[in-house]
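PR-protein
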Amino acid sequence: WNKLHGPIQPSEDETIFPELRIIDLSYNEFSGNFPVSLFQHMKAMRTIEQTRKDPRYFGDSYFQDFVTVATKGIELEFVRILTVYTVIDLSNNKFEGCIQSILRDFYCAPGAKFSHNELHGHIPPSLGNLSEAESLDLSFNHLSGEIPRQLA
């Protein structure tokens, strides 16, 4: 665990991490409004490459890399990582904000963890349309209302 803290400043820089697919800032003490603007230019997290027929992997041309990801309580080690694999883990911080405005930009992330923050609002029914989502952890926040039946 790191001891990074404070708010993450908004960014208008369109060149910031455009190819980033895995971001893990969990278990820190980031606070303030959720940094939606930071992620709006990370195009690789927001688009699905449907034109290629064969899978592309990170590290094919230079090196073999690996990452360990915990999803649904299971730790998985990826030795070759598909370029379409996207993970966002911002859990266990003190981020604030309305859940509707945060989630609208993460429609392609198969794994997204926003648990243990200070997020609020209703879970929008439109989340049921996230065909790429495999897991979405919103536990331990200040959400209200019912779980939409589209997610059941």
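thats it. Helices lie at 36-39, 99-103. The longest helix spans residues 99-103. bye
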